[in-house]
Specification:
The structure holds 3 protein chains of 3 kinds. By secondary structure, chain A is an alpha/beta fold. Chain A has 12 helices and 13 strands. Chain A has helices at about 45-50, 75, 85-90, 100-105, 120-130, 135-145, 160-175, 190-210, 220-225, 245-255, 295-305, 315-330; strands spanning about 5-15, 20-30, 35, 60-65, 80-85, 180-185, 210-215, 230-235, 235-245, 255-260, 275-280, 280-290, 305-315. Chain A is globular, with a radius of gyration of 22 Å. Chain B is an all-alpha fold. Chain B has one domain (about 5-260). Chain B has helices at about 1-15, 15-50, 60-100, 100-135, 145-170, 180-190, 200-210, 220-225, 240-265; strands spanning about 55, 60. Chain B has a two-stranded antiparallel sheet with strand order 1-2. The radius of gyration of chain B is 21 Å and the shape is globular. By secondary structure, chain C is an all-alpha fold. Chain C has one domain (about 1-260). Chain C is about 70% helix and about 0% strand. Chain C contains 11 helices and 2 strands, in the order ααββααααααααα. A two-stranded antiparallel ribbon of chain C has the order 1-2. Classes of the chains: A alpha/beta, B mainly alpha, C mainly alpha. Chains in contact: A-B, A-C, B-C. The interface of A and C includes residues 53, 93 and 128 of A.
């Protein structure tokens, strides 16, 4: 099995002293589909940029396709594709204060030339990646069926809505079927009905072509559908690197309860929860819904203290992993 | 955090402020760019007259003086007629934005004001500089009469340019797409007034006098103060005509503008 | 290699989408020329030549310089824009040389402007202005070669200014001043022949003269024999020099952007 990406002890520290990447090591083999999860600011985008050669690590060893990404070997460019949503432009923006500019005129990951029509853009891509005409037509039709980009072929990129732009971006990268596909929250802006077909398309394509994928996302469904492995970043550190099943199971049976009390609450040591956090009048706790019912836990709390407000819902995937990992280390 | 950004983004994209914002930023940069070009074209004229001494008997100082009138009145024009500059654009985008974005609308307008103040300031500085360089070396006797005349010139010159601008702004009501024409006519025909009108051929002269009357903004007023020999080709009362042209011109332009507005609203 | 030609072709073709813009631009260039045509006719009243230059030569020189200057539209701050959008570095991953792509796209656009904006102005000007033709067809060909070299110099000069986006917040000032300098001292607002001798001597050490002035001189055959070759070599020298500078700046700039992650 060919190893596609090797990362050893990568470190990246930004000007403000924050370790965006803190001693991260992992490897990815050909055909693996890896989900990259973590809260915003955990370092996902930074890690992706390190892998792509868009950022220089302060220390560490990184190899992609057996080359250093910073060497920017053109032949690798032919085999790689990258799509990033809004989160990509927020990372490392540093001194630039053009907030309005960034949001309102988001150009996409730069796969498309914003001064040209979609049609011209694809024509350029066909030439750059040397795709024979009929093969190109065939692939394009497949992408059109799934993403519906054909209907705005003659529009300039600048005239499109965010959702249309993102779909076109994804198509522009899938059309040359790269061996390595890197996606940083690519489904942002695409409306809910289209999201499902995009995910399905990604799943199908990546498995048919045996593509290697890195997908940074917050969405559980995407990971479930597309990825077979998950890496979890927290404050720059790689906390979890393994199968998604375990997390899924945890996620499936975990619930989060948020309570606001009338007065300050001392420790609730005997609460049947996995973990809890108390601050002033508020408590957030995670409990296993297989073992404890909502009724049990609510009455348990209510019988002791005066409740002002209460909410039960599913935690985010990041919280789940944190709890899991926290569990593993206690 | 990313959810908020998405909401924000959707709001902006929906109301089209993205395009408007970029347009205003672009027009700000454009006006500065034109300013740099203006300044450099003065240098061009300077070197030209260094070699040729006079242009139709006008020397470099006299041309600078005439140019200073043009710049000064343009600067004043920007300050007072800004509203008419934006208004056609607001008409274009206004229906959608205005309801949703009243507070933002003011914000955008402030930005635009800022941009125009810079342009007005820079043209004002150029005109003051040109004036200082020339006013005392072109043989003008600055007494009560000439100063009064100069002030009247400032006003009439500003109003004339305002009239031209209002007139062409009204065209925006008929064509949705082109700010091109308005800017084009205004900017490019202004350049003709950099030089004494007498150098041009008959047709051009007539246009500059009676269609887009830049000649009455700076050339004839300067003639009153300088009395150059090429004035012989024109009736003497032209030197006093500027205020008349200003009033008549502006009235016509305004009437046309209102007419066009009514046309647009129907 | 074909992909670069494709870049040029697509940019060329995309200009057909907005024909109205072209008419406006043609008028703008034409009006500018008309003003200076009148100016020179007036300046030359009663004189045949000034410093050995006839009125017709002066007018023709202006047309040549103005026309090409308008065609080489230099208003876009592309590196800065891309940096602000965060799409600059991504270009480097692509299997395309970014700088070469920029050059070819510019060539496509410029070719369009020359053919569809400048040429009409020349044709119209021929109707009323007393223009002077090239010294000979040999000189005419040499002129075109020199124009092409001058174009490359203009692009490189613009590119180096754009590269300053790596180091400052806004390159707008640098680019405007550069364009103004070319306008005043390059022969766009006044023929270089009429600039003071001292000024011209200083200008030899800048690329400004090699963009329009050298081609214009070759057009009129003002250089004899050896000097013609030297003129071309002078242009080539500037290409090499500016090319080298732009490359060094590029490497440093990119390194810095990669380190800071801003772009």
């Amino acid at each position: 099995m060919k190893t596609m990406i090797i990362v050893k002890n990568a470190v990246k520290i930004f000007d403000n002293g924050i370790h965006a990447t803190d001693d991260v090591s992992f490897h990815i083999t050909r055909g693996e589909k890896v989900g990259l999860i973590g809260v915003n600011g955990a370092g996902k985008t930074t890690l992706i940029r390190l892998i792509c050669g868009l950022l220089r690590p302060d220390s560490g060893y990184i190899r992609v396709f057996r080359r250093e990404p910073l060497s920017r070997d053109k032949s690798i460019g032919m085999k790689m594709g990258m799509v990033y949503g809004l989160s990509g432009i927020l990372a490392g923006k540093g001194k630039v204060s053009f907030g309005f500019d960034a949001l309102s005129a988001f150009e996409g990951s730069g796969n498309l030339d914003k001064d040209l029509t979609i049609k011209n853009n694809f024509e350029l891509i066909r030439t750059i990646y040397r795709i024979p005409k009929d093969l190109f037509q065939m692939r394009f039709k497949e992408l059109d069926d799934a993403l519906g980009i054909g209907e705005y072929m003659n529009y300039h990129v600048g005239q499109l809505s965010l959702g249309q732009k993102m779909r076109a971006e994804i198509a522009s990268v899938l059309i040359y079927e790269p061996e390595l596909l890197i996606l940083d929250e690519p489904l942002i802006g695409i409306d809910v009905s289209a999201k499902e077909s995009v995910r399905e398309l990604l799943r199908k394509k990546s498995s048919d072509q045996n593509m290697t994928i890195i997908l940074a996302t917050h969405n559980v469904e995407e990971i479930e559908k597309i990825c077979d492995r998950v890496m979890f970043l927290d404050k720059g550190k790689l906390i979890y690197n393994g199968s998604f099943d375990k997390i899924k199971y945890s996620y499936g049976c975990m619930n989060r309860i948020s309570v606001e009390f009338e007065e300050d609450v001392p420790d609730l040591l005997d609460l049947p929860v996995v973990r809890y956090v108390i601050q002033n009048h508020r408590m957030t706790a995670w409990y296993n819904s297989d073992l404890v019912s909502a009724k049990e836990i609510t009455s348990f709390i209510a019988s002791r203290y005066k409740i002002k407000d209460l909410l039960i819902h599913k935690p985010t995937i990041e919280e789940t992993v944190k709890n899991m990992v926290g569990e593993m280390y206690t | 955090m990313s959810m908020d950004l998405i909401q924000l983004f959707k709001a902006y994209a929906k109301t089209g402020i993205k395009t408007r914002f970029q347009y205003h930023l672009d027009s700000f940069l454009l006006s500065l760019a034109v300013f740099v070009r203006e300044a450099s074209s003065i240098f061009g004229v300077y070197f030209l007259l260094l070699k040729f001494d006079t242009l139709n008997d006008w020397n470099i100082k006299e041309i600078f003086f005439m140019f200073s009138i043009l710049s000064a009145t343009y600067s004043l024009f920007i300050m007072f007629f800004m509203v008419f500059r934006d208004f056609p654009d607001w008409i274009k985008h206004g229906d959608f934005d205005r309801i949703l974005l009243r507070p933002r609308g003011i914000f955008v307008q402030m930005i635009l004001n800022g941009a125009d103040w810079v342009a007005a300031l820079s043209h004002g500085c150029i005109s003051i500089l040109m004036f200082i360089l020339s006013a005392n070396s072109v043989g003008i006797r600055w007494n009560a009469g000439s100063i009064f005349y100069y002030l009247v010139t400032m006003i009439s010159g500003t109003v004339i340019q305002g009239a031209i601008f209002v007139f062409f702004s009204a065209f925006n009501f008929y064509f949705s797409k082109n700010h091109g024409i308005k800017e084009f006519v205004f900017w490019k025909s202004r350049r003709f007034a950099t030089f004494p009108v007498s150098i041009y051929g008959g047709v051009v002269q007539n246009i500059l006098m009676f269609v887009i009357p830049f000649a009455f903004v700076n050339y004839f007023p300067a003639q009153y103060l300088l009395r150059k020999s090429d004035m012989a080709a024109y009736p003497e009362y032209y030197m006093y005509l500027s205020p008349v042209i200003a009033i008549v011109g502006f009235t016509l332009a305004y009437v046309f503008w209102r007419f066009s507005l009514r046309y647009y609203q129907s | 290699m074909e992909k670069y030609i494709k870049f040029a072709t697509i940019k060329f073709m995309s200009n057909f989408e907005n024909p109205f813009n072209n008419i406006i631009e043609i008028l703008e260039t034409l009006l500018f020329f008309v003003i200076y045509w009148y100016v020179f006719r007036t300046l030359y009243q009663g004189k045949q030549t000034v410093d050995g230059i006839t009125c017709s030569m002066a007018v023709t020189a202006m047309l040549l310089s103005i026309g090409f200057d308008y065609s080489y539209y230099k208003g876009k701050m592309y590196i800065q824009e891309k940096m602000r959008q965060g799409t600059l570095l991504v270009e480097l991953i692509k299997p395309v040389d970014f700088r070469l792509r920029l050059l070819f796209e510019d060539m496509g656009k410029t070719l369009f402007f020359v053919v569809f904006r400048y040429l009409p102005v020349v044709l119209i000007a021929m109707l009323f202005a007393n223009l002077q033709g090239p010294k000979s067809s040999f000189h005419f060909i040499l002129f075109f070669i020199s124009v092409f070299l001058g174009y490359i110099i203009s692009w490189l000069f613009d590119f180096v200014c754009n590269e300053m986006a790596f180091f400052t917040l806004s390159v707008w000032g640098i680019v405007s001043i550069k364009n103004a300098l070319i306008d005043v001292f390059g022969g766009v607002f006044v023929p270089v022949w009429f600039l003071p001798v001292a000024v011209r001597h200083i200008l030899i050490f800048t690329p400004v003269l090699s963009i329009y002035y050298i081609p214009v001189n070759l057009y009129f055959g003002l250089y004899d024999g050896v000097k013609m070759i030297l003129a071309i070599l002078y242009q080539i020298l500037w290409i090499v020099l500016l090319g080298w500078i732009s490359d060094r700046v590029w490497k440093r700039g990119i390194d810095q952007v990669i380190l800071k992650g801003a772009g």
